[in-house]
Automatic annotation (TrEMBL):
InterPro entries: 2-oxoacid:Fd_oxidoreductase, THDP-binding, TPP_enzyme_TPP-bd. This is 2-oxoglutarate ferredoxin oxidoreductase subunit beta. It comes from the Bacteria. The keyword Repeat does not apply. Gene3D superfamilies: 3.40.50.970.
Length: 268
């Protein structure tokens, strides 16, 4: 199955560093298959990431890639898109990276509605730094900083982005990887800021602390708790997959170009 997308990878960097059973590899393949389906020019695709397990993804991909500082993937991506709006910019972030130290940048990238395709890989934990709870760790779940259960409610990251001004939001899981590919395609085709939440399993830092015996158990949990619009919710842990919202609003780089043109006319 890998051979159909091998051309998009730096194969000399493989094998990857992700733990056995981690869902990030599956999600990586789903994203790359979206790019293949879209037939994008590899030389015009840019992947930007922050710090964390998921942010190692661009190091394996044969595109223009930049591995930035913690929480700062969106400011770097915004600068790239503003300077070179013809480029196709994908932003890869983890749940902690995007909603804790990077939360303010997520709000303002959404507010600007700049044409970026952002993917938050949500494994409900800080996996790389020791299993601390993140802003997306579910209530009452355990991490190294919440050994008796997380007291805080998690962000609803798509609702946050929608309220801030993003014009497309969707969710899928590592289990629903074919759906994830479709949603990344739809996100790319949206002329504005798009956010896709990709729910992943972290069997080492999250699963073993929360009574999941195997990575397969975590994938089955994703299957059993996901529902599509119109289906009945059966449990408080259930979550909707598919397109969550879509709207239209002026896109930042196009509005900026209009401003430049007006200023040129005034200065003549």
């Amino acid at each position: 199955m890998f051979n159909d997308i091998a051309q998009y990878f730096r194969t000399d960097t493989l094998p990857h560093i992700w733990c056995p059973g981690c869902g990030i590899g599956t999600i990586t393949a789903a994203i790359v298959r979206a790019i293949k389906t879209l037939q994008l020019d590899q030389n015009k695709v840019i992947f930007v990431s922050g710090i964390g397990c998921s942010s190692r993804m661009p190091g394996y991909l044969d595109f223009n890639t930049i591995h930035t500082t913690h929480g700062r993937a969106l400011p770097f991506a915004t600068g790239i898109k503003a300077a070179r709006p013809e480029l196709d910019v994908f932003v890869i972030m983890g749940d902690g990276d995007s909603t804790a130290i990077g939360g303010n940048h997520l709000i303002h990238a959404s507010r600007r509605n700049i044409d970026l395709t952002a993917i938050v890989i949500n494994n409900s934990i800080y996996g790389m730094t020791g299993g601390q709870t993140s802003p997306l760790t579910p209530h009452d779940k355990r991490g190294t900083t919440s050994p008796f259960g997380n007291l805080e409610r998690p962000f609803q990251v798509l609702e946050l982005a929608k309220a801030a001004g993003a014009t497309y939001g969707a969710r899928a899981t590592a289990f629903h990887n074919q759906l994830l590919t479709k949603l990344v395609i739809d996100a790319y085709n949206n002329p504005g800021f798009s956010l896709v939440e990709a729910i992943s399993q972290c069997p080492v830092s999250y699963g073993r602390r929360n009574k999941f015996k195997t990575p397969a158990d975590m994938l089955l949990w994703q299957k059993e708790h996901a529902y599509k619009a119109g289906q009945r919710i059966g449990h408080e842990d259930d979550f909707q997959i598919g397109e969550i919202f879509s709207s239209q609003a002026p896109e930042y780089t196009k509005e900026y170009d209009k401003l430049r043109q007006r200023l040129k006319e005034v200065s003549r």
